[in-house]
Fold this sequence. Notes:
Elements: E1 33-39, H1 43-54, E2 62-67, H2 74-82, E3 88-92, H3 101-111, E4 117-121, E5 126-127, H4 131-137, E6 144-152, H5 163-167, E7 193-196, H6 197-203, H7 212-223, E8 226-237, E9 246-247, E10 254-255, H8 264-279, H9 287-302, H10 310-317, H11 320-323, H12 328-335
Parallel strand pairs: 1-2, 1-4, 2-3, 6-8
Antiparallel strand pairs: 4-7, 5-8, 6-7, 9-10
Amino acid sequence: MPDTAASRTPETKVDQTQPEYRLSPVRAPDSDIGVALATFNSARYLKQQIESVLAQTLQPRQIVVSDDGSTDDTIEIIASYAQRDERIVITRNGTHHTTNRINRNFENAARHCTTRWIAFCDHDDVWLPQKLDLLYRNRNGASLVYGRSQPIDERGVIMPVRTEDLLGFTAHLSGNVPPLIFMHGNTVSGHALLVPREILDQAFPFPCGMMYDQWIALVAACKGPIRFVDETVVLHRVHEDNSVHRRIGPGTKSLHRIPEIISRREKLLLKQEIADRVFDFRADLTEKERLFLNEYRSHLHRKSRYQINWRLFLAGYGIRRRLYMKNSAWRLLKQSTLV
């Protein structure tokens, strides 16, 4: 068929228009939800994201914005909204850490939230109007609740892929997964979760060697069931300037990375930090999980390289499918060597 204008399939574009935000000051509603929004040179998409938060059917009581030293118009945009809405609070990420400033920025925003429940917010996404209401209604009995997100490109056009496919965790996407899975992968996107304050208090400070959402999910899975709501709550924007998952070509590929380049030795130390922090929650693990965790910590602290730690392999073999959902034995064997 010839490629004519009539034969082409039109692009699917989301209607992202929001009503013009009122100029009069707004009093905080009675809900007990706070929004932790992290920004850095966010001027391009920030207004659209803030408008989508303000358009929630269940309004948040507090919106804390932590900025990591923006040099564009980000602060001016936030200030203009803060003048109209007393719920919006601006704070600066004053940390001196040079590794994983994304985690530090989100942590700074979350620490300044005073609400019982906290939702994390990227600066370049678009929340669907029912996001907070849907997650909040499913919160009872859960240590964390999260929903789906739909990727869109920089123009707001829906991409022909689900976020879980884009980020590579389709095979084990479910709510209440075993906690140790989160030591090696993630099924929870920070932009789509709602978490109670008591879980965050146990997760602080966020470690440098793991993205904040993966770490929160790990802690939450240790403390109680994670609930997955199988509905889209966020339009997740994928573009060339994403800090963690960014578009690297005309297709749907993405890049997952801790932004800073670190040495092998630093990676080992970061792994040790994670294992030691998880050890604090050993009382919440099964006996077999504790056995694996103990041997894994010993393995890391011995700094073994290029040799198989058979004790670690055998300790994890009985729970290999709870550690790795695909190619479990091979992945466990790889974990038994530090290469």
